[in-house]
Design brief:
This protein is mainly α and 159 residues long. Helices cover 55% and strands 0% of the residues. The protein has helices at 11-24, 29-36, 40-53, 72-83, 98-109, 115-124, 141-158. Helix 1 runs antiparallel to helix 2 (29-36), helix 1 (11-24) packs across helix 3 (40-53) and helix 2 crosses helix 3. The protein is elongated and about 85 Å long.
C-alpha cells in the first residue's frame, strides 16, 4: 500500500500527511511532534483537520490573493473624488494620506481596507504615494543660500 505522504507536493504537505500516518500507526501526538520537529499544537491542528475533512484538508493549496472589492466603476469614481482634493472633503490641507483615502473609500463605498491595501489601490488607479518634503513654511531661501556659501565651509573646515 502506498503511503499518502509519498505523493506530497512539498515538505509542509509531507509533514502533515506523515503526522496522520504516524497517528494511525498508534503513535502519540507528542512523539509525532518530536519526530517531525514541529510543535504539539501543529500536530493537534493537523489531526483535527484530518478528522473533520479527511486527507484533502492537509493537501497543499495555492494561496490566492483576494480580488479588489472595488469595482472598476468605483475605482474610476475614486480617481475623480481624489482629484477634487482633500480639502473638498473637510480635511485640513490638500494632501491625501493613505488613512484619508481609506476613510474616503469607507464613507463613499462602504468598503473597509487596511492601509497597505489602499496603497495598492492607489497604484492601480494611477496615483502614487508621495512623501512630503519637510521644510519650514517661514524658511528664507536667500538666507539659507548665504549660510551655505559663507558659514557652512567654516563649520566643515573646523571638523
Amino acid at each position: 500500500m502506498e503511503l499518502p505522504s509519498s505523493k506530497a507536493k512539498n515538505v509542509r504537505e509531507y509533514r502533515r500527511l506523515r503526522a496522520v500516518e504516524l497517528f494511525e500507526s498508534g503513535m502519540k501526538q507528542a512523539a509525532i511532534a518530536r519526530a517531525l520537529n514541529v510543535t504539539r499544537g501543529a500536530v493537534s491542528q493537523w489531526l483535527s483537520a484530518y478528522r473533520d475533512k479527511g486527507l484533502e484538508a492537509l493537501r497543499y493549496r495555492k494561496i490566492t490573493k483576494n480580488p479588489c472589492r472595488l469595482s472598476q466603476e468605483q475605482k474610476d469614481e475614486l480617481r475623480k473624488l481624489l482629484a477634487l482634493g482633500a480639502e473638498h472633503f473637510g480635511y485640513p490641507g490638500a494632501i491625501w494620506t493613505l488613512s484619508r483615502v481609506r476613510d474616503l473609500i469607507l464613507r463613499k463605498f462602504g468598503i473597509s481596507y487596511c492601509i497597505s491595501n489602499v496603497a495598492v489601490i492607489l497604484k492601480k488607479i494611477g496615483w502614487t504615494c508621495q512623501k512630503p518634503v519637510v521644510r519650514a513654511t517661514q524658511r528664507d531661501e536667500e538666507a539659507s543660500k548665504k549660510w551655505l556659501q559663507e558659514k557652512w565651509p567654516e563649520i566643515k573646515k573646523s571638523r
